[in-house]
């Protein structure tokens, strides 16, 4: 296999060598990557002599490295949830290709175009398989992919989500971290409510900091200004992945919507309060018996990619979130699995 350019974050590209290759496609977002860690660990254990390559967006290079699950990051375009082109794959076909991207034919076909020796996917199970995996829309994301692998004789534990914290120190050790942003407007709780939660927690003597990714500077500034937070406690669009990871790993509590940083808290075992709306926590929430609390108003599922905040998310008021956060802080982290407010 001829080399390709190094991936983002310094992860080496595939090299020509003696080891056969397993190529896994999961070219989605940060939360999707972290939810895929149990499946990736299962693949790693099943093929210890292979080079395990993950096709994932170039911008996730540091996060891919932090999972400790693969040998090589094969960078793809940062194009949202669309199936990326894999035409820049170098050299010989992979011995095994595994589609952890979705259940549609486009991701299967992108891998099939590389002519792998075997191709495992939901869309087109291997011919002659006695019990091929079937997609279940009502299944938790981690369980879905572990069950898929198990159908092909690859054991995987859906609760095996923990990753090591970075070696660098937190920029705000012991703080309560609020992350008001999300890729989709449907999963963004209003900024004024986050500000009210921040102010209430700050009155208890706790340090509160606000984080946000690129493009979320305005919402973070609004939350901080309304809550009366000092400028140095706003980290909006300024943190690289390793800095964000250190911040969340060293936090007393993370409060956020159902987005990437919430899954980072799950992965680090940091206490969290996560606000769900269009998608129920039983589909994307943390494992049971962890230090996490999920808040959700039961109702019919919404569109997680809608251009307006989800109606069920808006039914969560500041009182719900403040009570959950203060309870979590008093206990050193909640112990329940899901708390639903009707």
| Helix content estimate | 25-40%
> Element order, helices and strands?
EHHEHEEHEHEHEHEHEHEHEHHE
Count helical runs.
12
How many distinct domains? 2
Residue windows where pLDDT falls under 50 for at least 5 positions: 1-13, 334-342
Name of the CATH homologous superfamily of the largest domain: Glycogen Phosphorylase B
Form type = elongated
Strand order of the largest sheet: 8-7-6-9-10-11-12
Structure summary, number of beta strands: 12
Mean pLDDT: 91
| Secondary structural class | alpha/beta
Separation of the first and last Cα atoms = 56 Å
User: What is the name of the CATH class of the largest domain?
Assistant: Alpha Beta
From the alpha carbons, calculate the radius of gyration and give it in angstroms.
Answer: 20 Å
Q: Would you tell me which CATH topology of the largest domain applies? A: Rossmann fold
Q: What is the second-level CATH architecture of the largest domain?
A: 3-Layer(aba) Sandwich
């Amino acid at each position: 296999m001829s080399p390709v350019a190094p991936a983002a974050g310094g992860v080496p590209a595939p090299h020509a060598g003696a080891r056969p290759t397993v190529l896994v496609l999961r070219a989605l977002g940060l939360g999707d990557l972290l939810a895929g860690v149990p499946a990736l660990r299962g693949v790693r254990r099943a093929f210890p002599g292979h080079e395990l390559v993950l096709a994932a967006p170039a911008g996730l290079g540091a996060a891919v490295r932090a999972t400790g699950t693969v040998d090589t990051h094969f960078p793809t375009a940062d194009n949202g949830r669309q199936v990326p082109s894999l035409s820049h794959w170098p050299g010989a076909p992979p011995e095994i290709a595994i589609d952890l991207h979705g259940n549609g034919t486009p991701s299967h076909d992108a891998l099939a175009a590389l002519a792998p020796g075997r191709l495992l996917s939901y869309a087109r199970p291997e011919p002659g398989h006695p019990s091929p995996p079937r997609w279940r829309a009502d299944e938790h994301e981690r369980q879905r992919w572990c069950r898929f692998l198990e159908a092909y004789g690859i054991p995987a534990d859906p609760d095996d989500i923990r990753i090591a914290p970075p070696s660098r120190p937190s920029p705000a050790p012991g703080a309560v971290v609020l992350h008001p942003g999300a890729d989709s407007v449907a999963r963004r709780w209003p900024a004024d409510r986050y500000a009210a939660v921040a102010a209430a927690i700050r009155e208890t003597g706790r340090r509160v900091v606000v984080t946000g990714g690129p493009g979320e500077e305005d919402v973070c500034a609004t939350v901080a200004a309304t809550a009366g937070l000092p400028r140095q406690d706003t980290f909006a669009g300024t943190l690289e992945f390793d800095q964000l990871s250190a911040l969340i790993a060293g936090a007393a509590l993370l409060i956020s919507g159902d987005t990437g940083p919430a899954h980072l808290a799950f992965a680090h075992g940091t206490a969290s309060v996560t606000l769900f709306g269009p998608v129920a926590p039983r589909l994307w929430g943390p494992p049971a018996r962890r230090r996490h609390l999920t808040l959700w108003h039961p109702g019919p599922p919404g569109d997680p990619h809608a251009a307006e905040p989800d109606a069920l998310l808006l039914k969560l008021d500041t009182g719900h979130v403040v009570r959950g956060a203060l309870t979590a802080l008093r206990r050193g982290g909640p112990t329940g699995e899901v708390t639903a407010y009707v």
